[in-house]
Write the structure tokens for this entry.
Amino acid sequence: MSKGNYKLIFEGAELTGKSSIMGRIYDFLEKKYNTNPKILDGCHWFNSDVGIFGTKYGKDIIEKYVEMAELMPERNIMFEKLHISDMVYHNLYKKQELDYSAIEERLLKLNTKIIFCSIEDDPKIFEKRLGDRLNLYNHYGRIAQKPSDYVEQQKKFREFITKSKLPVLNVDLTTLPNERVVKEILTWIGETQ
């Protein structure tokens, strides 16, 4: 039996299915490692990008998220976006380059891994996903982009992911739900269903 203590960052462009696949991985880890029938303590899920990445607060907030992970080295933690997203957003929208090498060193000490979620570079797929998102969350319309912009965002994520020192698993979420990808992620981190 594996020991748990996973630190996982799910990165990728908007609309690529990160939340969907995270829900499946979270359910597995939380159920397996839960120790309390009254508290969901088997895995902690931080939805990190809540209007912070790409702003002046991103770097300081990421520092705090890493501190929280360091406070709980024995716990399973999943981050929905983290430093790669902040770098991409600063690069795309502010033409700024950020250095997260010190954060990556700390994440490496925690054995953190990145799951890079992507889909085919097809604007029609992004258009469909955008429609689904807007039906669920009308506030997203304030930042909605053209489908081709999401394709470009995904290309920028690919560029920045290749520069990371952390282990990376690339998963294709063009098709959702996707049990094959759930199994692939669990196997990669050392779990079996």
Observations:
- DSSP finds seven helices and five strands in the chain.
- The radius of gyration is 16 Å.
- The chain has a mean pLDDT of 95.
